[in-house]
Predict the 3D structure of the following.
Amino acid sequence: MNLANPQLNDHGELIHLLSLDGLPREILHGILDRAAPFTAVAEREVKKVPLLRGKSVFNLFFENSTRTRTTFEIAAKRLSADVINLNINTSSAAKGESLLDTVDNLAAMQADMFVVRHASSGAPYLIAQHLAATGRNHIHVVNAGDGSHSHPTQGLLDMYTIRHYKRDFTKLTVAVVGDILHSRVARSQLHALVTLGVPEIRLVGPKTLLPAAAARMIEKGPLRVCHDINEGLRGADVVMTLRLQNERMQGALLPSPQEYFKSYGLTPEKLELAKPDAIVMHPGPMNRGIEIDSAVADGKQAVILPQVTFGIAVRMAVMSMLAGSQ
Ligand code: NCD
C-alpha cells in the first residue's frame, strides 16, 4: 500500500478503487479504454470472459442498492468469478459483529475482492487499511459508495457515457444539477471531470444544497456555481441530474418537493436552454416529478439506461484491472 495514495502500489498500479480523488488522468483513461471492449460482454454479444476465473468476489452492501449491486454481480460473473452476495440484514452484522470482524471472517474464506457499500464515509478505506496492516494486500477493495464521500465506479461509468456520446472532454460544458452537498456521485463526477480536462463545470442548485467549499472554488479553475438553473443549463453539452438525498439531510433544507421541482426540476422547457444535442444523465434512482420530469427522463436526449449498461463494462474493467495488479 502506497501511503501517499492507498489505492496504488509502489509501481503506481491500482490495487484498490476507493475514490477518484488523486487518480491521474492516465489511470482514468486507462479504465475507460479497458472498458470499451467489455461493452460487447455487457451487451451479451460475447457471453463471458475468463479473466477472474477461480476468484471469489464478495459483495458487501450495507446500504440499499439496485443498479450498483446488480451490475457488480453481473460484471464479476461475466468475468467468470464466483460471486458471493452477503445479505447484511440476515448476516451477523445485524447481531453486532464489527465491520472488520466480518471482513476477517470473509477473508478466511479466501476472498479475493470486496465490493463495499456503506453509509459511513471512509468504510472501504478502513477495510483496505486493515487488510494492508494484516498483510493481506492481495485482497482488493472496490468502493461501491460510502456515505456522501465517494462513488468511484459511478463517476467512471458517467465519464464513459460522456466520452461515448461527446468524444472530447476538453470542449464540453457540463451542468451538474441538484443535491450536490450530499451526493457521493457528484463528488466523484467532479473529481473525474476536472482531471479529464472539462473546461466548464457548473454546479447548479439552491444554496442549501451546495457545499460551502464549492463557493471557494469558483473562479479557481473550471467550476462555477449557479443558483439560477436557466443560467446553469444555457449552452450545456451534458446535464447530470441528481436525486435529493433525503436520508442524508439533517433538518429542512428545502421548502417542499413541489417547490424544488418548480425551481430545479429538469423539464422539457428548461432543457431547451441547453445545446440541442445535449445529453441528459441520471445515476438513478430517479424521483420523477422532483428532480426530473418524465418527459425528459423518457425523452430522446436521455441516456440514463445506456449509463446502466455501460456500468457493467466499466465495473468489468475495474475488477479485471485490480485482479491483474500485484
Ligand atoms: C446513487 C448512490 O447510491 O449513490 N445511486 C447509484 O449508485 N446509481 C445515487 C443516489 O442514491 O441518489
